[in-house]
Amino acid sequence: MFSRRQILVASGGLGLAALVAGVLPKLSPGTALVEQAQADEAFEVTHSDSEWHSLLSDEQYAILREEGTERAYTSPLNNEHRSGTFACAGCALALFSSATKFDSHTGWPSFWAPLEQAVATRQDRSFGMVRNEVHCRRCGGHLGHVFDDGPKPTGLRYCMNGLAMTFKPVAA
Ligand SMILES: [Zn+2]
Question: For the whole model, what pTM was predicted?
Answer without folding.
Answer: 0.76
